[in-house]
C-alpha cells in the first residue's frame, strides 16, 4: 500500500513549548486513521502541520514524497472550530459552493448548473438538503459541522483530515456521518481526530494515540498500559476493537 503522508522525527514548538515531540507516523492510501489523546495533546497541531499551516520545528512531513506545498494530492480539512460572522447574509448552499473557490478565483465567480447540482448531491449525501436556503447564522453546531463536511466533500479530496467532526452531534447524526465517512473511505483516505474512542472503534482501520509523543499506532486494539500512558490515568473505553474495560469496576476501590 502506498504511503500518502510520511511524518519523520517531527517536533513542533509554540515559542519554547514543545507540543509534538519526535513523531514518526505513516498514513497509507486507503487508511481510516483515528487519532485519540487528551485535551491539549497536540492532535489539532498535528493536522495543521500535515496541512502545512504550521511548519515543523524539527523533522519533516512529506505528502507522496513531496513537501506539503508541492503535493499534487488534494487534502480536505474540516476544522474543529470555525469562526465566522453569524450575521453574514449567506445561505448554506453558497457556503458549500465556496469549497470550489481557490486563491485563483476567490470572488466574483459564478457557479455552473453542474457545480450547483454537485453541491446539492453532496448535501443529500450528508442529509442536509432541507437546509440549503437557510441563513448560515441560524444553524446549530451539529448542522454547521455537516455543512463544513459537505463543503470539503465537494472538493473531491484524496485525503480528508477531520478534527472532531461529530463533536456537536446527536447519536443518530453521528452514526450517519461515520457511515458516510466509512463509505467515502472506499476511495478517500481518512484521518479523524476524536475523543469518541468507543464510537469510532468500529469504523477506523488504525488508531494513533497522541499526547505530545506518539504512544501507539496500529490496529485499533489498545492495552491498558498504552491508554494509561497516553491519558496519564486509567480511562474507560467501551468499544468493539478496543478493550472493553480498562478501568477498575466502580466499587473495586472498596474491595482493596
Ligand atoms: N497558536 C498557539 N500558540 C501557543 N500554544 C498553542 C497554540 N495552539 C495550540 N497551542 C497549545 O498547544 C497544545 C496542543 O494543542 P492542540 O490544539 O494541538 O491539542 P489537541 O490535542 O487538539 O486538544 P483538544 O483535544 O483540546 O482539541 C495545547 O497546550 C495548546 O494550548
Automatic annotation (TrEMBL):
Listed EC numbers: 3.6.3.28
EC top class named in words: hydrolase
PANTHER family reported in the protein's UniProt record: METAL TRANSPORT SYSTEM ATP-BINDING PROTEIN TM_0124-RELATED
Name of the protein in its database record: Phosphonate-transporting ATPase
ABC transporter domain sequence ranges: 5-243
Source species taxonomy: Bacteria, Bacillati, Bacillota, Clostridia, Eubacteriales
Key words of the record: ATP-binding, Hydrolase, Nucleotide-binding, Transport
Similarity field: Belongs to the ABC transporter superfamily.
One Gene Ontology molecular-function label: ATP hydrolysis activity
UniProt cross-references to InterPro entries, sorted A to Z: AAA+_ATPase, ABC_transporter-like_ATP-bd, ABC_transporter-like_CS, Metal_Ion_Import_ABC, P-loop_NTPase
